Amino acid sequence: MTELDRRTVLRAGLVAGAGVVGGGLLGGGAAPAAPAWRPSGRPVLTHGVQSGDATADSALVWTRADRPGRMLVEVSRRPDFRGARRVTGPVLDPSGDFTGTVRLRGLPAGERLHYRVRVESLDRHGLVSEPLTGTLTTAARPHDRRDVRFVWTGDIAGQGWGIAPDFGGMSIFSAMRATRPDFYLCSGDNVYADGPLTETVALPDGRIWRNIVTPEKSKVAETLTEYRGQYAYNLLDEHLRRFLAEVPQVNQWDDHEVTNNWYPGEILTDDRYTERRVDVLAARARRAYGEWVPTPRDGRLYRRLSYGSRLDVFVLDMRTWKDPNDGNTYADPNRGLLGREQREWLVRELTRSRATWKVIAADLPIGLVVPDGPGAQEGVAQGDPGAPAGRELEFAQVLRAVHRAGVTGVVFVTADVHYTAAHHYDPARAAVGDFTPFWEFVSGPAHAGAFGPNALDGTFGPEAVFVHAPPRANTSPAEGYQHFGEVSIDGATGALTVHLRDRAGVSLWTRTLPPPVR
């Protein structure tokens, strides 16, 4: 893969920002129209290449250019691209921040494929960029019993801890790449749009953490340009860029893609913001997310992805329909985090799934208490170990429905709380009895301040089987306590093995779960 030139990236980011038209719901506060300056020479791909949502016969491929151009993608079984199939993609222009995504279709199932991306100038036909290459692995066909491995984490560049070359950058992504996963699940907080960076931070041992800082990362994001700049910033890191070029992603969004602990309709009281209507900020953030992350653009973030007969992944959106953060003790079962349509979809798709394992990717944990200041709750639980109340009612409905339908093999994976843990839920310990025991695995942060552990709510009978948390709040990545999880499923036996790993990839805890008996 061609190495990225940082000055080119920063210049291209500023040019793209200047091309955004101000005014309106999405563009408010953005810079005026682009100046007459036009880059010379060949187009440049400024932020690498990525792939996402790889199925048995399709995958998304993403890139960004430094000027308007036509995206061209080749895909092949061979690294030399002999006999490659070429796909003509969209025009990359200022309206989309010069980003573009192509869906490759008709791909062979269960194979590691090579792709190559160029952009052709709109001014001079035949003038194309230097190519960038990547790899992706397609999912197995629905009835195939294939091995499958994925990694997950969340929480990237948060709490003031940005890219610090002196401390190895975001090296956790090199450790994740070394596991050779079939895909990567980001459990939310892809960026910290509400987390400005300073150039230096003093560490407890006297060392100095020196951040790379861009204009968009020097304040809270409010404009479309500033939200776009959050994603551009993370891609300055060579570890992350190389990882994303080689491993297809499955992405969720959570709160920090917009602002901390947000919910629809919220009006901020944070003096750092001049735009305090969260719905306006969320619209801008959602557009930037769709432009910079290779994710489906059908407007719906929750979805089911199948990986052969052994694994279905159910990606939740626990933010778009979130109710206000209050005491979370209400009795209305129609409120919650998922909304009626998504809740019914989840029950229906879990019931239809024939996969051995049904992994639910939740961007908020089920049993951990996540406060939002005094008297308000951010997550599902509120600390009362009694009968379900508030948002717990919604998950009690889901767990009860799939239990009565005979669904087995449900496992939750999440991040959010900035430490790693393994929780086992059992009705024998719970205030409710009509659900099938399940595991919840927590892992993060990828590159942010480490916190925890949080209190467990006893409503669904959780037991903390393993916890690895820092000695104090906001421990820096330089001190460890950065985590990712790895799940591998044996295609022949159906056994599922979980590793909770540290920043270097060392396994801190592991457990193999036998395939459930139907």
Automatic annotation (TrEMBL):
Gene3D superfamilies: PhoD-like phosphatase, Purple acid phosphatase-like, N-terminal. InterPro entries: Metallo-depent_PP-like, PhoD-like_MPP, PhoD-like_sf, PhoD_N, Phospholipid_Metab_Enz, TAT_signal. Residues 47-125 form the Phospholipase D N-terminal domain. Residues 152-499 form the PhoD-like phosphatase metallophosphatase domain. SUPFAM superfamilies: Metallo-dependent phosphatases. It holds the Pfam family PhoD. PANTHER family: PHOD-LIKE PHOSPHATASE METALLOPHOSPHATASE DOMAIN-CONTAINING PROTEIN (PTHR43606:SF1), PHOSPHATASE, PUTATIVE (AFU_ORTHOLOGUE AFUA_6G08710)-RELATED (PTHR43606). This is Alkaline phosphatase D family protein. It comes from Micromonospora globbae. The lineage of its organism: Bacteria, Bacillati, Actinomycetota, Actinomycetes, Micromonosporales.
